[in-house]
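Because discrete structure vocabularies remain unfamiliar, we turn briefly to a single example record, giving the amino acid sequence and backbone structure tokens:
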Amino acid sequence: MRLAIHAPNLGLSLPNQPFGKDVANRGLYTALASHGGFDQISFCTAEHPTPASLQQQFGAAPGAARLSVSSLIQTDSAVQAGTLLRGQPYLSELAWERGHRHGHQAYSLVGMIHTLAPPKVRELIGEVLLAPVQPWDALICTSPAVRQCLEGLLDRWQVHLNQRFGGTRAPRPQLPLLPLGVDQAALIEQRTDQRSRDFLRRHLRLTEHDVLVLWLGRLSFFEKAYPQGMFIALQKAAQRCGRRLHFVMAGWFPNGESDHSYYQEAAQCHAPDVPVHFLDGKNPEVVRCCWAAADLFISLVDNPQETFGLAPVEAMAAGLPVVVSDWDGYRYTVKDGGEGFRVPTLAPPYARQGEELALKHDHGLLSYQDYVGAVAQHVAVDTEAAAAAIVRLAEDPALRQRMGEAGRLTVQQRFDWPVVARLHHQLYAELAERRLAGQERLGLEAQHPLRGDPFRDFAPFATACLGPETKLRLAMPLPVLGNRLSNLTCLDRFYGQLHASPEDVQRLLVQLQSEGAQSCSLERLLSAWPVEQHDDLKLSLTWLAKLGFIHWSHP
């Protein structure tokens, strides 16, 4: 079985401040190569990695799929595979491309939803109701909350389309529920590193009985979580707990020192009795020490940017009990009282301020960060419940052990990459069955009506368009023309890849010379050439005319 992956950016090296989708997609590609049961995986990409570097990054495991690379716009590998996966949820342009080049039933399209928060993302996802997306395509939802939200968005968009155009319900892609995954073996290995545990606890001056609470991830109050709720909960817990609590926030500040100062001020105000340590979460050795040294994990996320949440699953994989907000994907990954505790959250109802936020963001008066940050500032997390959960776990090592083991087992059964990779394999097979059994709608437009061939779209701009009856003749003797062609300027050579080779251009000019002073019609000129070369030759002729090398006229 084969698979094709549409990956403009392969992610061979992560950015300095990686987003969760970057980490998740790289993990998914590696898992599919190592555990997906595929013989070959072809990456359609704008990058040009060496075969060795590609295999080393994604397919180093024994028995991994053979990996290859093709151009981003080369879709033959998708036809051969039957499935084209994209690590983003944008299927519209891929659906138009499929229909134009191969027909709508040539292969299935699968996209990944990592966030629904940006309005532009929701708009681009909504194009699945306008583009020729089919029931044998899929948008993978990583949590029930994401699927429920997406179904509501598409329903409301469909109502508008019906009212506007009088249409019926458009075919929709499948919305399967597939989680993201983690490398559990690597996390367990880090968690059990006693040397790293001893080093960090000694460095932070923890005693044997102190409890280390860990947050790991981007330190972004506007895109991840406002930290005040965690600080307040830890302060309340510290006042009731028989053990001293320490809080490590391992991550990075997107806006540098200014954000760091905001967090420090909030920590001093809301958690004066809890030592709060900020560590570099971009350093793999620091992260390793954090997993080893921590006693419990906390993530009271309040932001709509979050849809799944890898960090709590990573903590569970490592065997740490978790305290998380009852929010979107966390509700799906953490069972309250099982792998840890879920803390209730409260969101405001519909309000005019929400409409104003959306309107200001639409007009560029409000950045996306301010848009979601303003929403998150008005989502409450129950700090009393969070404090109670922290106290229970801090004072009961046996409970920490029991919940940690439950989390480890949950990840082993549901979220380890080999498990998730098999779910993807199963999904692709089910989509193939739908595609092979489905009926392609006759008369469905193959090429996007608004994004087609620019030569066709802008033909009315010109006096005339090159056609079968267009008369062509040389503007100068062939020897002079040959000399001019060998001395073209840099500007003359731009975009030369679009027309015929120099050898074919020379043959074309020889043909025109054989006509003497008589003009030759385009139809007669091209009759001596294979049909598959006609487009190259037509562009060559208009280019030659542009440079004054040939004359043209119309009947």
The mean pLDDT is 92. The chain has three domains: 2-180+422-437, 184-414, 454-553. DSSP finds 24 helices and 17 strands in the chain.
